[in-house]
Amino acid sequence: MTAPRTTLLPSPRAAEVLQDPTGPRRPWAAVLRALGCGAAATGPVTALVTGYAPPTLIHFTVLANLLVAGAFGWSAVRSWRGTPPLPPQLTGAVLLLAAITALMHHLVLVNYGGPPATGTGGPPVASLLLHTVTPLAVAADWLLLTAPRTLRLAHIPLWLTAPAAYLGLTLTRGALLSPGSPARYPYPFLDVDTYGYAGTLPQALALGLLFAALGSLITALDHLRPNVAGWIQHRRNRISPPAAGGLK
What we know:
mainly alpha
């Protein structure tokens, strides 16, 4: 006679793991990313409320900060739940947007003259959040909380779709608005009224090439930087107390 076959059913815990293959939770990373989300969201709100920027979302800086806030919020939730991190295609795009925002303001737009400074002689709070605090938060997240050597040169065309879409939006909006409308062209190098399309488009193309070069530099640095995130996680695992309760 043949012995009856015994079917081993997975334990409830094993079934739960199969249904929800999550990794270790990182509450400390979730908190840091939530703070970055708050800073990136506060900048645009402060700019619109205080009048630092016109009451419109057409400014690249405002849109970039809102995108960063969304990415930081999503990443904070994933860190809290222990789900896989955001893909490098997205983290690289956010990093490039933040770098463009900071460099364009501090190296280019200040030479054109920007919104007036506060009476104290320092930059307005909105400008500080938009152009300095948020880019620094994105850079810190990239250096401290993400694994290196994940960015690829093949990602750069995808990263450049955001600036290209912004260029199309700005030129289309400016063509639909009547001459003299406030903030018809939000940046002087995109002012078709002043330079015409023959002057504006080459400037936009030159900026696109600079952004591509910046993306290449970021990718190269990503392959050279140390794995700080892995080191921090290893240190936390070494000093973590033993789990409560007996072996299961």
